[in-house]
Amino acid sequence: MTIGRPDGETRTRAGRADRVLAALFLGTFVLGTTEMLVVGVLNLIAADLGVSVPAAGGLVTAFALGLAVGGPLLTALTIRLDRRVVLVCALALVVVGVLLPVVVGSYPLFVVARVLTGALTGLFIAVAFAVGTSVAEPARTGRAISVVFSGFAVSTALGVPLGTLLGQVVGWRGAFFAVVAVAVVALAAVLTLVPSVPGTRAGVADQARHAFAPRVLAVLTLLLLVFAALYSVLTYVVPFLETVTGVSGAFVSLFLLVHGAATAVGSIGGGRFADHDAARTLIVATAGMTVCLLALRLVGGSPAVVAVVLAALGLVATGMVPSLQYRVVELAGPGGTLAQSLPASAANIGVALGSLAGGATIGNLSIAATTLTGAGIAVVAVAVAVATRRLRGPAAADVPGPDGAVATR
């Protein structure tokens, strides 16, 4: 009967979209683990390569710089190419970038590989968001974004701790070999499940004109402030827990696990709020983040309450990420393809600035005072969220295009 055919077609289309999103989730999970695993095995890398721990920490900076700068550049250079081809090539090159330093064992090569791997990660993120939103129903754009992003959140909560544990048992090289193995699985999933998606027909100059419009830059500023506020505290959360809360050893890991699990839940659930009203979600979430950071200052000496606050902070902070991505692409309109790469860059800059702000606070005041620094930045973020609520994209964004630009509501 023809009456039932639309439902069957809808289920088939939804099932196909779910499979594509699952492949993209696995890809971002691998890339998130690749980025942060270095932190968990930093001492092992330093000892094996004969460099200091601060020098080994430069591997984290190298990745962040590669992502922040190289991600948008690679996105611009590949803007006309088939999206599936770009995803496959990016993942394949990431496998090489992860494997080469492990085999060669050269610190300078490791730094170069991290810069390139960071740039490829930025490229994959942008294209994955574009593909994910192109296969999803328009009303589920935010949820598609949240699935892609949640790969990073789950990697923080699960992939990095497991990789760190493996590194302690078999060495950092063994942990990186394990990442390569999972990356190969992700590559096979993308090859098998992701369909061909044409690149945009617009030129880079036209994309950039819309992607860097003042309305887009305003939301990118909000995104930068959110991550600066968050990481002015999270960068130093372990010494905060040890000196202010009074927990140590395995209990610190438990607190981090609680926060990590909450970030995973927030990233997955945040897409629904983005679909409902992304602009209002940002106001509520930035206000909630401010409250959480102030609460850490007020109840920092109570372990049970701190665990609850860290969980709440993880929920609201990552819960707003889909809305931030949604708003950037929405406001970029026809420049959505290039704009997909910009939130990750802004986030990494925010993390760097937040870490510097927190470090300066510790140097001049105390570890406990980092929460006030974070809350102060968060208050500014609330004001920017309110100011950007009524911003709308250009009329050309009213109709979604194959490049992943979403409709203006």
From TrEMBL:
It comes from the Bacteria. It is a multi-pass membrane protein. One of its GO terms (molecular function) is transmembrane transporter activity. It is found in: Cell membrane. Keywords: Cell membrane, Membrane, Transmembrane, Transmembrane helix. One of its GO terms (cellular component) is plasma membrane. The keyword Transmembrane applies. Residues 20-393 form the Major facilitator superfamily (MFS) profile domain. The chain crosses the membrane at residues 20-45, 51-73, 85-104, 110-132, 144-163, 175-195, 216-238, 250-269, 281-299, 305-326, 338-359, 365-387. Its main location: membrane. PANTHER family: CHLORAMPHENICOL EFFLUX PUMP RV0191 (PTHR43124:SF3), PURINE EFFLUX PUMP PBUE (PTHR43124). This is DHA1 family inner membrane transport protein. The lineage of its organism: Bacteria, Bacillati, Actinomycetota, Actinomycetes, Pseudonocardiales.
